[in-house]
Amino acid sequence: MKLLFIFFLLFTIALTDGIPLGPTPVMPTESSNITVISALSMPYPEEIAVDPTQTFYLTGTANGYVYKVMLDTNEITTLLTPKDFNPEHFELWTDEEVAAYCTGAQNETYILEPICGRVLGIKFYTNAKKVYIVNSYFGIWEYKFKNHGRSRFNNIFEQTGVFLNDVYRIREKLYYTNSHTTVQRYSVINVVLDPNPVGQGSFNVFDMNTQEHTTLIDGLFFANGITLSSDKRFFYISETDAARVVKYEIATGETSYLVEDLPVLTDNIYLEKSEACEIREDSNERCDNDGTLLVPGYYRVEGLDEVLRNFSAMAEFLTQDFYTVVVPTFSSWIEPVGTICEVDEATGEILKVIFSNDFKFLLAASAHKLSDNEYITGSVFYPMVFRFQVNE
Ligand SMILES: *[C@@H]1O[C@H](CO)[C@@H](O)[C@H](O)[C@H]1NC(C)=O
Ligand SMILES: *[C@@H]1O[C@H](CO)[C@@H](O)[C@H](O)[C@H]1NC(C)=O
Ligand SMILES: *[C@@H]1O[C@H](CO)[C@@H](O)[C@H](O)[C@H]1NC(C)=O
């Protein structure tokens, strides 16, 4: 009887509790002193990867392309197109036809996402000789840069019917996140506002030798960006809906939180290693965990926070007309302000919040630090890449 009662109680709590999102923290309101270096028009960039020569590569969520941008000249070239990811469909199309079909107003192209694909995570490996690219619809791909002749591009694995998001390679293992395991990206509002008391996202590993997939953590509330700790013992995984960063110990599978209740709903994360730590992913060297985690994300607006904390409110909200109520309300929740948190890797302490409500940078799905106080950000909700300096 007693056991039954406890079971009932737990069950009730699980069903009425919202996403594990704490009370809204003190939110930044005053803009940091920012000097814009450049603002490039780009198609809703999701993740940015910067190579050792300071060239950056970015994935465009408005059209399914991957671009390469030279930082010194801002010259933009196309690295990959939807034709590369979905050759069966586009085999007989010209590049112009593909571009005309896949590039357009964002709401139109949502419908085309399963055909044109959407490229999200992008990560270099082995000193930028290879890059791993996540196409949310067509799986994970490897692009190998060659000094002579053609570069090689091939599919590592396909995964359909899920919302694949980010990737990180160590040796023969590819770690990746599924933001949702049964819903695809075009239905992103339903992923953010999923009235399911158990998170539907997961953190997984694919063994390239055995070709086996293993789920390492499930029940995540919108699993998003991944990065590796400086000592290579942990992964940090961004959990967007819960505004926190999960810390996963590779050897034991132990899961804890590096930082909870951030002032942003987190997106991609990036580790700025300490100066002493210049080691490659494929070497055996390790550093101390004395880096700084860059955590860009979406400013926590009161209305959205309330709905995320309350599953019945979320369920109620989703029964309203999708195009006249749900979509516009959801859009109004995405405050067009830029927010990046810097988190101490060793302690999880928030060291700094870079904030802009003066249009110096707008929203941020990914952020890289290029040098002292110099940053580059991209956003799935705003078609620009901003490069700027923060004045102390
Ligand atoms: C912002 O930083 C610049 C450059 O350091 C400085 O000249 C300017 O006075 C600062 N503005 C404010 C409002 O602090
Ligand atoms: C959760 O939402 C429901 C439905 O809108 C509402 O009746 C209830 O008061 C809310 N609970 C809390 C704790 O805000
Ligand atoms: C874009 O979305 C709006 C609002 O849902 C809809 O009315 C409109 O028809 C859509 N535009 C196109 C071109 O599909």
Short overview:
This protein is α+β, with helices and mostly antiparallel strands. It has one domain (33-390): 6 Propeller (Neuraminidase).
Q: From the alpha carbons, calculate the radius of gyration and give it in angstroms.
A: 20 Å
Main sheet characteristics: 5 strands, antiparallel
Name the poorly predicted regions: 1-15
List how many beta strands DSSP finds. Answer: 25
CATH superfamily heading: TolB, C-terminal domain
Distance between the termini: 62 Å
Q: At CATH's second level, what is the architecture?
A: 6 Propeller
CATH class: Mainly Beta
Q: Count of helical segments?
A: 9
Structural class: alpha+beta
User: Fraction of residues in helices?
Assistant: 10-25%
Shape: globular
The portion of residues forming beta strands comes to: 35-45%
Oligomeric status of the shown chains? single chain
Give the number of domains.
Answer: 1
Q: What hetero molecules are in the model?
A: 2-acetamido-2-deoxy-beta-D-glucopyranose
| CATH fold topology | Neuraminidase
- Average pLDDT rating: 91
